[in-house]
Amino acid sequence: MAKNKAKNKKQSKRNTLQAMSQIVPKATSMLRADVALWKSARGQAENPDNQRMYAIHNLYKEIEIDARLSSQTKTRKEKGIGGGYSIKDANDKVLDDLTQTCLKSGFFNDIVANVWDKIIKGHTVLEFDYNDDAEKYQCYLIPRQNIVPNEGFILKDYNDDKGIKYREEPEYGNWIVEFGDHYDYGLLNKAIPHVLFKRFAQSCWSELCEIYGIPPRVMKTNTADTAALHRAEKMMQEMGAAAWFIIDDTEDIEWAQSVNTSGEVYENLINLCNNEICLLLTGALIGQDSKYGSKGKEQSSLEVLDSVVQGDKRMIERIMCDVIMHALYLIGFLPADGLRFEWDKAENLGELWTRTKEILPYKKVKDDWIKDKFGIEVEGDIDKGSNELNIAPDFFV
User: Fold this and answer.
1) 176-179 sheet: strands from edge to edge
2) Is 368 left (phi over 0), alpha (psi -120 to 50) or beta?
3) What is the Rg, in whole angstroms, of the alpha carbon atoms belonging to the chain?
């Protein structure tokens, strides 16, 4: 252990760039976002001569507060990185001790979470560090607003042109790693218009409720009579708290005709935007459509989501093996080079149980294996020489 700590401290001295500490914190603009702002931000991000990412990523930060968007993103992320994984050597042997160390390491799991975020937000640059006082590794996400991917710059202030050419630094590839295409903006770029239109519809619907929720009142009186005018104003102000009022025989009060709509056009637009967000992030509408929902539809939707999640896992495995694992070896976190990251394969216990029951009359099945797989306490056979178990046949149905 002491030898490993000494190695870690020696390796940590190589991280002299400390790019994260040089970045100037900036407040996010709270101005109203619209489609014109999105198009302008896209133009800056796609400009090959002077690429700037701060506008589009500030817009990402703004739309992430949308409830449907954040819910669908969280659902996909939890399914994508929620399973177990193993660390294997070049001979495909699982390194149990190292796997357990990584599973319990906040540093390693932060890396996996940031790799997944590449799906949502695109090109990513991470900086690793070693805290000598706490004797632990740390992972920092370099703010995407400060990155210029096609030029390899980390801008200290994203409104300035001064930066660090991180690909030319000796820390690149070990303490600093990047992944994702230079023009990879992630799925949030496609979600922006749906969130903005949804906000527009909600704002208009709210205004409709405010204006026409209570029918407008009209008071006819002699405006030349100051006393009558003041009395009418006071009466109109207090009508919300009074169920009755007294007016002169020369005065008249009536309720204006309200609009003949309850906001269906806004509701339809909001539902459309919500559905588009769901289709973008999870591939299907899961649990949202109660009018046309059915068990078969939900099962099919979950299968689509599982397919999407499996694609996410393959992407994470590829980036971890091609970029991250070698860098972690170079900084001293992993003990050897050439190690692989691999997700544990999920088993269908229902199908496995059916196959187990079918093979029991013909082949021997170990008691320990049944206990480990299905959690059933078994002890030998019912009859001598028989391998049949006294377990209800519909246990997993």
Assistant:
1) 136-141, 124-131, 176-179
2) alpha
3) 31
Distance, CA of 198 to CA of 189 (rounded, Å): 15
State both tokens at 289.
């459509």
Residue 141, phi then psi, degrees to nearest 5:
-90, 115
226: tokens are: 């100051």
Tens digits of pLDDT across the chain (397 residues): 334 543 444 454 455 667 877 777 777 666 678 889 999 999 999 998 889 999 999 999 999 999 999 999 999 999 999 888 999 998 989 999 999 999 999 999 999 999 999 999 999 999 999 888 778 899 999 999 999 999 999 998 888 888 889 999 889 999 999 999 999 999 999 999 999 999 999 988 888 877 776 666 777 777 777 887 887 787 777 776 555 566 666 666 666 665 666 778 888 999 999 999 999 998 888 766 556 667 777 778 888 888 899 999 999 999 999 999 999 999 999 999 999 999 988 666 677 777 877 787 778 788 777 777 777 777 776 665 444 445 545 545 4
Residue 255 near residue 218, CB atoms below 8 Å: yes
Say how many Å lie between the first and final Cα of the chain, rounded: 49
Under a CB-based contact definition with an 8 Å cutoff, are residues 88 and 293 in contact?
A: no
Q: Enumerate the β-bridge partners of residue 218.
A: 254
Instruction: Dig out the tokens for 9 from the structure.
Output: 């401290």
Please list the alpha-helical segments (H only) found in the chain.
Answer: 2-12, 35-45, 54-63, 67-81, 96-103, 106-121, 188-212, 226-238, 264-282, 295-319, 325-330, 349-359, 367-374
* CA–CA dist 128, 141 (Å, integer): 9
Check: CB of residue 142 under 8 Å from CB of residue 126: yes
As given in the structure block, the two tokens for residue 310 are 């499996």
Q: Check the CA dihedral 79-315-12-170 and report its sign.
A: negative
Using CA atoms, how far apart are residues 269 and 197, in angstroms rounded to an integer?
8
Pairing of strands 124-131, 176-179: antiparallel
Beta bridge partner(s), residue 247: none
Q: How far is CA 353 from the centre of its chain?
A: 35
Return d(Cα 114, Cα 122) in angstroms, integer: 11
Hey, how many other C-beta atoms are within 10 angstroms of the C-beta on 135? 11
- Which one-letter amino acid corresponds to residue 29? S
User: Which is nearest to 146 in space by CA: 42, 32, 25, 63?
Assistant: 25
